[in-house]
Amino acid sequence: MKYLLSILFIFVFILNLFSQDERKFIREGNKYYNKNNFNEAEVNYRKSLSKDSTYKIGKYNLANSLYKQKNFGEAEKYYTQITENESDKNVRSKAFHNLGNTYMQNKDFQKAVDAYKQSLKSNPTDIDTKYNLSYALQMLKQQQQQNKNNKNNKNDKDKKENKKDENQQSQQNKDNQQNKDKKQQEQKQKQLKKEEAERMLEALKNDEKKTLDKVKKQKVVGVKVKTEKDW
Known about the structure:
The protein is mainly alpha-helical. About 80% of the residues lie in helices and about 0% in strands. It has helices spanning about 20-35, 40-50, 55-70, 70-85, 90-105, 110-120, 125-220.
């Protein structure tokens, strides 16, 4: 679906309200604009505004030339100034329409929708604005759905990461417990071996003591000596 985002251009119709220089700059700017030389058009519109900074047609045409150069931030600034200070419904409608276009270029679809609605309040019959509003609403819906999907995907990813961390922590705890049990078993075996060695040593001591006691008894009893016979 292709949207229009048309720039609604206002030429100067009442030139006798301004000085000769201002009319000259506006005319020159319009000539360059119609030749798609938007840079030179910008230069002349700025010269016109240097004579009268409140000149709404100069601001509007300057904003259009900036928009054509894809300088959407600057264009937005001048369109906004016009919408805030303009009482003429036709000018307000066009300014809000083009302001909506700048928001569309920046993918700020909610602000674009709001701007197009404001434009239609001043001119409810504008077909281009109705079309752009419809498109902006469609893009806003898609953007909101995409944001929702991204949020859900992020939540799922976070859950998986948390589950992974839990599994890793569980495995680490299991490994730590196994290592602890292994050390305890090794210590227990060492203790048993030590106790067994002590028992064996004690048994050897007992055997040695019994042997010594036996030897001592044999020394005391001795061998019976035969006495000499009497003659």
